[in-house]
From TrEMBL:
GO terms for molecular function: GDP-mannose 4,6-dehydratase activity; ligase activity. This is GDP-mannose 4,6-dehydratase. It comes from Chelativorans salis. Residues 11-250 form the NAD-dependent epimerase/dehydratase domain. Its EC number is 4.2.1.47. It is an enzyme of class 4 (lyase).
Amino acid sequence: MRKPTQNDRCLVAGGAGFIGSNLCRHLLKDGISVDVVDDLSTGRMENIAELRQNPSFRFIKGDVADENICQRLPHRRYSQVYHLACPTGVPNIELLGEKMLLASSAGTLNLLKVAQRSRAKFLFASTAEAYGDPQVFPQPETYAGNVDPIGPRSPYEEGKRFGEALTRYFGQKHGIDTYIVRIFNTYGPGMSPTDQRVIPQMLARLIQKKPVVIYGDGSQTRTFLYVDDLLAGFRLVIERGEPGAAYNIGGSDPVTIRDLLETVKKASGLTGRGVHKQHFIEDHRGRWPDTAKVRALGWRPKVSLEQGIRRIHQDFCEEVGLHTSTSRSKTEAPFMSTSELPRATFSAQERRSLYDQFHRV
Ligand SMILES: NC(=O)c1ccc[n+]([C@@H]2O[C@H](COP(=O)([O-])OP(=O)(O)OC[C@H]3O[C@@H](n4cnc5c(N)ncnc54)[C@H](O)[C@@H]3O)[C@@H](O)[C@H]2O)c1
């Protein structure tokens, strides 16, 4: 197997989502053609609107769990297949749990077959939630986790664990180079301001001058990684990683959710307060990746939490036509230029409300 060249195409399943659309942008920048298959269940056409102007980019709307869609995909050879297609967001577990399970089971099998036909490398986007509610800190890849197979989070967690098992087994059986990345909380441009994940949620609430909801006492911890650093890790894993192996990729410093709110306020210059609520679902006390394995491939994250928050804050504000006091310096690497950034959408009503709230400050 070899590196993709400018004559190759990559397939990005879930490419209209937050991470997927950033991945497509990186691949296209390197001159690699990209096909996206996405059913838009949690992704957005706005994320790929500007990419669709590029003749090397092709969008196919479809569900990866549908065998017919995947069988029709490889009209030409793919050198790499990235499987990021899965509905995300804890509040979506109740609504889209079945789709989560199918995307990670039938969807993974269908995409592995696409990779097999193309002799492509295959990367499965797994999650820190494969460890469930961990009892070991930090979590190395060898830790088997603490997961309830019929717990409230199981459609997402067990779906991903099944996807991992299938990815490894299929690769070994059919001689396909497969890789598993366990992604810990990642954020950045391309997330919708209505995204329920913690950083976009905090920013959107602060911009709207609404109290920020903190579940429980806020002492639960997470690590946070800027999306460009995640994508640098993807590249190293797929180019230099060990086939069949799993790699954690995530931020290195655990932050309590309470402290995260203070960091978001400091980085964005926004003000506001948190309100404590009981979580609507069983919460995990902490997640913290042991990243020694991916670091051994040469990976080092470059973007600090404050830098990254400023970037996503600016992205949200550009969306609603607001100016921030934390505008990004044009020389600040490795961010993309404003014209390259994906656009998120607010409804007309949300936009008006955000604009009104902001100008009342
Ligand atoms: N962002 C994170 O912090 C994080 C953490 C752990 C794991 N991940 C994983 O990374 C991947 C990308 O996450 P994201 O943050 O970009 O979320 P996202 O919701 O923005 O992207 C997921 C994309 O997959 C698409 N999709 C869902 N089901 C599909 C199906 N059956 N067929 C085709 N497309 C489908 C959605 O429409 C969306 O565009 C997901 O698999 C997610 O589980 C993300």
